[in-house]
Write a structure and sequence with these properties.
Strand order of the largest sheet: 1-2
Oligomer: single chain
CATH topology of the largest domain: Sodium/glucose cotransporter
Strand content: under 5%
Low-confidence stretches: 530-546, 594-602
Number of domains: 2
Shape: globular
CATH class of the largest domain: Mainly Alpha
Radius of gyration: 25 Å
CATH architecture of the largest domain: Up-down Bundle
Number of strands: 4
């Protein structure tokens, strides 16, 4: 059986499983549609949360980013993992005790204002729609490579699959589908990692293999990788950082607090029966997430090593000078995996010096020695461009693993993208149908009509998500990080103040959310060249790229959060305190034991 047929079978079987689960678990009430009836077991909810959490960014892009950036890429691991811990410890149990299953509903009730709820919906939609662009892009990448169809066709198929199990199943269908998707994606991520770790280090555990010696040598994998990448003009793998120390810190904080403010993950904690179960499922989710997140650094380093070993044969094991002709492969003799990935456009070769060989190095290096070696060898610049998104997906092919492993990785990448997309669509649907339609425009709507509104809004959201995947905005690069920044600057401070500050009033919360959202979007759009004044790119008027102390747009969410907090507290001091019953409600929500849910009605 050839690879293409194997891939169709594995991916097709996974899709059939998802649709079958959706039919079995279809929602029959608003409670099942929005919160799976609050009856999901904590362990299963932990698995579903893990799938919801580990998006295309985690599965497809994270290891690729670490592979490209080296040590500096660790900020994604620290930010996303730290954010989950923050969410699980400081937010989820209190929100679960409050009893409202959407973030806008919590903000509307806590800040006793439908306007506050509406602003929260706007913030939620902005973050979720930005985030979903990355998921649909991931679907397109996986489909275009593994199923031999165009990127556009892949997105259409992905839309159809999500529609089948999200619209009809709601949160109930999504939850049990995500359990299956977690199993698929974690096997797809760890099985190839075990194979490759054995190949390179002889250790079946990638986490230990990363720190071990290469097979047949007394040289550690990381030491060898440091040597090879520096020879090619790249920064030392184990010490390279992402810009300034300040930017790395702020970037990590932005991902961390943005993670804690993501509404589609928060909603997962309302699907279990009790507050205790919410805490338990948070713990289980961390275990399930850790399996992938502790494997990612090993996957990144080993993929980098395999890529260099493919392009410059003999360099890794025999210390051959990479700038000599016999160290590089001829383009006509490139391996099959390169030919397959070239068709996607995510791997490109340009023969700049016309010698028919692939020269791969950092032609922007500051090292005079590297430049001198390259020029002496007749090189005229780097000739191989490798998109970070292919590192995980191509890794099994680079390592010549069995076809069934490659097919499994395809199914895993699609599972990661589709599971998070479904969670985001559920958050968008709930915000529109429950928080806007029922909460603001039609409070007396029947349960049947609210359920219908939820399904219609989700269907519309799927169409919008597909359109954005097919026609991403000009500033779509880094959209996942931008989504976290938007959530960090708008929703996270409002949730934190809503739980831990009984004196925070509606005026302060609303002003803070708007200020945080506005300044973050302003900074991002300015740096992406969206603003023009008299024909001049506005970014030039604020000091050029990264003008604010060298902070990149993707990292600005943490600064936006500080603005949110600052504006909220200033406005709060200038306006009257919240009503007495709201302050009692906030106190009651934080009481750990012995109290019943308080809804603010008295």
């Amino acid at each position: 059986m050839d690879l293409q047929t194997m891939t169709y079978l594995v991916v097709g079987a996974s899709f059939a499983l998802y649709i079958g689960i959706a039919i079995w678990a279809r929602a029959g009430s608003t409670s099942e549609f929005y919160a799976a009836g609050g009856s999901v077991h904590p362990v299963l909810n932990g698995m579903a949360t893990g799938a919801d959490w580990m998006s295309a960014a985690s599965f497809i892009s994270m290891a690729g980013l670490i592979s490209n950036m080296g040590y500096g890429g660790g900020l994604f691991l620290m930010g996303w993992t730290g954010g989950y811990v923050l969410l699980a410890m400081l937010l989820a149990p209190y929100l679960r005790k409050f009893g409202k299953f959407t973030v806008p509903q919590f903000i509307g009730d806590r800040f006793y204002s439908k306007t506050a709820s509406t602003i929260a919906v706007i913030c939620l939609l902005t973050a979720s729609i930005t985030y979903i662009i990355g998921q649909m892009t991931g679907v397109g990448v996986a489909f275009s490579r593994f199923l031999g169809v165009s990127n556009e066709t892949g997105i259409y198929v992905g839309m159809g699959i999500v529609f089948a199990y999200a619209v009809f199943g709601g949160m109930k269908g999504i939850t049990y589908t995500q359990v299956a998707q977690y199993v698929v994606l974690i096997l797809a991520y760890t099985v190839p990692a075990v194979f490759i770790s054995l190949q390179l280090t002889g250790n079946p555990l990638p986490q230990l293999g990363l720190g071990g010696n290469m097979v047949g040598t007394d040289v550690s994998l990381l030491s060898k990788l440091d040597q090879v990448v520096t020879d090619l003009g790249f920064g030392k793998y184990t010490t390279s950082t992402a810009g300034s120390t300040l930017n790395m810190f702020v970037y990590t904080m932005s991902l961390m607090i943005g993670t804690a403010g993501l509404p589609h993950v928060i909603m997962r904690f309302f699907t279990v029966p009790t507050v205790k179960d919410a805490r338990s499922s948070a713990g289980w989710a961390l275990v399930f997430i850790a399996i992938l997140y502790t494997t990612a650094p090993a996957v990144a380093a080993m993929a980098k090593m395999n890529l260099i070993r493919t392009v410059t044969p003999g360099v890794v094991m025999q210390n051959t000078d990479p700038y000599t002709a016999d160290a590089q492969i001829k383009y006509d003799e490139r391996p099959e995996w390169m030919k397959r990935w070239e068709k996607t456009g995510l791997l490109k070769f340009e023969d700049k010096n016309g010698d028919g060989r692939i020269q791969y190095y950092n032609d922007k290096t500051k090292s005079d020695a590297v430049k001198a070696k390259a020029e002496a060898a007749g090189w005229k610049g780097n000739e191989l461009t490798v998109n970070a998104d292919i590192i995980v997906l191509a890794n099994p092919e680079i390592a010549l693993l069995p076809d069934w492993v490659i097919a499994l990785v395809a199914a895993g990448g699609l599972a990661a993208a589709l599971s998070t997309a479904a969670g985001l669509l559920m958050a968008i649907s709930a915000a529109v149908s429950h928080d806007l339609v029922k909460g603001v425009f039609a409070p007396d709507i029947s349960e049947k009509n609210e359920l219908l509104a939820g399904k219609i809004s989700m269907a519309v959201a799927i169409v919008i998500a597909g359109y954005l995947g097919l026609n991403p905005p000009g500033f779509a690069a880094g959209t996942v990080a931008l989504a976290f920044g938007i959530a960090a600057s708008s929703l996270f401070p409002a949730i934190m103040m809503g739980i831990f500050s009984k004196k925070m009033n509606k005026e302060g919360a609303m002003a803070g959310m708007l200020a945080g959202l506005f300044i973050t979007l302003f900074y991002v759009f300015a740096h992406k060249g969206i603003f023009f004044i008299k024909g001049t790119d506005f970014v030039d008027m604020i000091g050029g790229p990264n003008s604010f102390f060298g902070i990149t747009p993707e990292a600005f969410g943490a600064i936006g959060a500080l603005v949110n907090f600052g504006v909220a507290f200033v406005v709060d001091k200038m306006t009257k305190e919240p009503p007495e019953h709201i302050q009692h409600m906030v106190e009651a929500v934080r009481i750990p034991r012995g109290s019943k849910m308080v809804d603010g009605a008295h």
